[in-house]
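Example 9 (inverse folding). The structure is encoded as follows.
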């Protein structure tokens, strides 16, 4: 819900910046468990690099999906995780799936007694020596990139939750922001600029944080804008300043890339 409201507020950003709320692995698993079997193959294919990386990490060597039985074991374990995951547990699906894959690979390794033949995980780091095929290098890179993207998505969601808590101290919710967000790009960009400059001014930003309200008089003088404009966009300006001046590394790009709007419009 927080992510959906955030996207509505910063709707000028591309959807490629983050997965829609209904497109998360947890949401897809829930849909599959409710009978939408068509999503199962889509989910498995989407996280094939993750499955490959998890298996390779366990085996401490690159796993070739076309030749190594360990990949088949990991694939079946991922499918098993889809059926066994419970959102009520509070954990992420990929964390749960990783645990299931690891358990099944342990069972397989014990059965096959192959521990002694496992090769160092450094093969995943792009080994270009003898025996390393172009395909293995490409798939290893895809696995690492998929994992990094998942970590970035998780961090972004955590930052959104933290921002929601900070905004609550000002009596602001994402619902407020989505309702009061400027509808025109030029207006939005002007307000984003004011918010960023407010955060960059140590005195004004300290006043904002301490008083829990905009320093209207000082901001009017510094920005040469009317008090009415600032008051009408108070919540949007506060949110922008908190992001710009806070520990929100993944959220800052949303307010730091001005776009060209329609000329002649005012907030």
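The amino acid assigned to each position is listed next.
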């Amino acid at each position: 819900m927080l992510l959906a409201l955030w996207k509505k507020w910063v709707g000028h950003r591309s959807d490629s910046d983050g997965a829609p709320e209904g497109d998360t692995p947890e949401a897809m698993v829930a849909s599959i468990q409710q009978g939408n079997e068509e999503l199962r193959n889509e989910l498995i294919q989407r996280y094939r690099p993750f499955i490959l990386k998890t298996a390779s990490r366990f085996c401490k060597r690159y796993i070739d999906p076309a030749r190594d039985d360990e990949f088949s074991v990991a694939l079946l374990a991922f499918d098993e995780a889809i059926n066994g995951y419970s959102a009520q547990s509070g954990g992420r699906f990929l964390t749960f799936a990783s645990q299931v894959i690891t358990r099944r690979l342990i069972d397989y390794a014990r059965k096959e007694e192959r521990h002694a033949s496992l090769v160092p995980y450094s093969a995943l780091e792009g080994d270009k020596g003898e025996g390393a095929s172009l395909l293995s290098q490409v798939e290893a890179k895809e696995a690492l990139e998929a994992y990094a993207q998942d970590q970035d998505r998780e961090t972004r969601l955590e930052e959104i939750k933290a921002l929601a808590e900070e905004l609550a101290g000002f009596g602001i919710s994402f619902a407020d922001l989505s309702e009061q967000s400027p509808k025109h790009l030029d207006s939005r960009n002007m307000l984003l600029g004011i918010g960023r400059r407010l955060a960059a001014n140590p005195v004004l930003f300290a006043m904002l944080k301490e008083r829990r309200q905009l320093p209207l008089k000082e901001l009017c003088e510094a920005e040469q804008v009317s008090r009415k404009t600032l008051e009408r966009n108070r919540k949007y300006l506060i949110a922008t300043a908190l992001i710009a001046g806070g520990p929100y590394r993944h959220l800052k790009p949303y307010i730091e890339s001005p776009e060209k709007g329609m000329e002649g419009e005012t907030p």
